[in-house]
Amino acid sequence: MDKYYKKAVEAAEFIKGRIRLQPEIGIILGSGLGSLVNDMEDPNEIDYGDIPNFPLTTVEGHAGKLVSGVIGGKPVLAMKGRFHLYEGYDISQVVLATRVFKLVGINDLLVTNAAGGINRSFKPGDLMLIRDHISFFAPSPLRGKNLSEFGVRFPDMSQAYDRGLLDAAREAALKTGIEIREGVYAFAQGPMYETPAEIRAFGILGADAVGMSTVPEVIAARHANMRVLGISCITNMAAGILDKPLNHEEVVRTAKEVEHKFVALVKEIIRNWSLV
Ligand code: HPA
């Protein structure tokens, strides 16, 4: 058995032994959505440090635990704290948890993040459903020997973000009266914010928002044939759009300000989520 695959199996077996309900939806919580786990019924936490072979998060303010429980009537398993490429992990480590989700028996993934707005009609605080992404200049989490236990060598990415789940999310937005945007998310490796020239280039390429996460996990999930829904919280306008510098504090502040709205939307989306 491949060494990496064996590590993922060990982590999954450990998690299966610690959760009470079979989760149906995996959730990767980005900045500002952490409090979603406070609304879980019957929550059950596992520290990353206790899970064999799991990396530990290095970002300040990001916990590092899995929380299983029930949201909107559905059993879920949420990652509070994710692994970013900019932290120095190998790209295969960034997506280990996504693959472990699959091995735990999860087929649906909800990923959220904070992102900079490139589309000039966006404003900080907007929520954006991710319709597609751009990341051809970043390393692929699938590089190296193909792990056929998960999927094929050349996986299709023409529908990376599930159309049915996008519809469920649109319905949830209507029902809650929460306004949502839609667009293309561009992956930037970070940790520095982009230059104005990079943002102009991304805009010309068709990106509406930019961020430093999500895409590796989505690629690994699609490789394993999981259904994916992605939502960005636009925390700031991207570099050069407004004539002012970017900083992490603004990102954290905006994420915090809209957390309530984001959590309400996500709860309704999960309630609306039809499992297959
Ligand atoms: N760029 C990249 N990542 C981000 C940004 C940004 O402007 N805002 C939040 N995450």
CATH fold annotation: Rossmann fold
* Relevant CATH superfamily: Nucleoside phosphorylase domain
Count up the domains.
Answer: 1
Largest pleated sheet: 5 strands, mixed, barrel
Report the span from N to C terminus.
30 Å
- Determine Rg (CA atoms, Å): 17 Å
- Note poorly predicted spans: none
CATH structural class: Alpha Beta
Main β-sheet, spatial strand arrangement: 5-8-7-6-9
What are the secondary-structure elements, in order, as H or E? HEEEEHHEEHEHEHEHH
Corresponding CATH architecture: 3-Layer(aba) Sandwich
Structure report:
The protein is an alpha/beta fold. It has one domain (3-275): Nucleoside phosphorylase domain (Rossmann fold, 3-Layer(aba) Sandwich). The chain has 8 helices and 9 strands. The protein has a 5-stranded mixed β-barrel with strand order 5-8-7-6-9. Helix 1 packs across helix 3 and helix 4 packs across helix 8. The protein is globular, with a radius of gyration of 17 Å. It starts with a helix and ends with a helix. Bound molecules: hypoxanthine. The site of hypoxanthine has 14 residues, from strand 5, strand 8 and strand 9.
Which helices and strands, and how do they pair?
Layout (H helix, E strand, L loop, with lengths): L2 H16 L6 E5 L11 E7 L17 E7 L2 E7 L10 H4 L1 H9 L3 E10 L9 E8 L28 H14 L4 E7 L8 H10 L3 E3 L3 H9 L3 E11 L10 H10 L1 H14 L4
Parallel strand pairs: 1-4, 1-5, 5-9, 6-7, 7-8
Antiparallel strand pairs: 2-3, 3-4, 5-8, 6-9
The protein binds hypoxanthine (HPA).
The site of hypoxanthine has 14 residues, from strand 5, strand 8 and strand 9.
